[in-house]
Design brief:
2 copies of one chain form a homodimer.
Chain A (H helix, E strand, L loop, with lengths): L5 H27 L6 H13 L5 H8 L3 H14 L2 E4 L9 E4 L1 H21 L5 H18 L2
Antiparallel strand pairs in A: 1-2
Helix pairs in contact in A: 3-4
The first copy, chain A, binds a DNA duplex (30 and 30 nucleotides) through α1 and α4.
InterPro entries (chains A, B): HTH_MarR-typ, MarR/SlyA-like, WH-like_DNA-bd_sf, WH_DNA-bd_sf
Protein name (chains A, B): MarR family transcriptional regulator
DNA sequence: ATAACATTGGTAATATGTTGTCATTATGAC
DNA sequence: GTCATAATGACAACATATTACCAATGTTAT
């Protein structure tokens, strides 16, 4: 009896993550559309805000699990759109630090307020324990593949 | 006291799902690369196999949570590559039924074997209960946004 | 200091996915 | 049967992401 029933469940989880990824992008796009912000751009802003300090492009990429090229592209268009600002990096001449512009800060504030309400509403029918377990499992999964 | 601590955890879960989505695509691409199959194409094949019968493009899209256009594009190239085959639909002249070709069946068989081992290995450090709870939460989340 | 190596930015090609639009074919109400 | 409506396929424009490559800049070992 080497078989377990865990493998198939793991597979179902993977498929559900694929589906949910798309659905969550939709949700984010909807919430951000009044401000011209897409899910991808919102996540860039979030990575910077959550870090509590300006970040370089590779640092943002690392945080989000994306390639630096993908982040670079977004950062460039978001700078052009005026929601991000650059700051010279005292420790590195080439790698500029990225922060939110004043406009970006304002937009992010409104988005974040919306998002907090959204998350609270979404979690009404889920228990704290269920959510904690889920987050713990997802983190373990990410660690498993993160290298 | 209207505040709960569930919202922030829900938000963390959403961010983890974004990251895991990318990591899982990588895993699938790696496993499929010996057969020229990417994650996206593998999932199309999986949707058909798991249905147990040929499906139309919109049916595949519905199953996977994608738009029919995205699926149509993949189905067309996979037909050109010879891994999918068409079958006239007795109940609908316009919507052809899609099934795996013989080559597709053979490739899928090998992929599936690999994937079963992979899922079992991945779930070693997770309990059945953790996995069940996680799947349940993810499904509830998907239902929440599925309309 | 210099040489080897790693990091960063930039660019291009490709894959995946969305929205929007149009024409065609099915379906259903009457 | 006819007409309004829905579903399907086809196509285009765009957004997001990857890999691959090159040039420029930093870092480290010697």
């Amino acid at each position: 009896m080497t078989k377990t029933k865990k493998g198939p469940v793991f597979t179902e989880i993977a498929l559900e993550i694929f589906k949910l990824g798309g659905l969550l992008v939709n949700e984010g796009d909807l919430m951000g559309s009044p401000y011209g912000i897409t899910s991808a751009r919102w996540k860039i802003m979030g990575a910077i805000v959550r870090a509590g300090k300006p970040l370089t492009v590779p640092q943002i990429a690392k945080t989000m699990g994306l390639t630096r090229q993908a982040v670079q592209r977004l950062v460039d268009v978001m700078y052009a759109d005026g929601v991000l600002a650059f700051q010279t990096n005292p420790e590195h001449k080439r790698a500029k630090l990225i922060k939110l512009s004043e406009v970006g800060e304002e937009i992010y504030g409104k988005l974040d307020k919306k998002q907090v309400d959204w998350a609270q509403t979404c979690s009404i029918h889920l228990t704290k324990q269920e959510l904690d377990t889920t987050l713990s499992v997802l983190k373990k999964m990410a660690d498993m593949f993160d290298h």
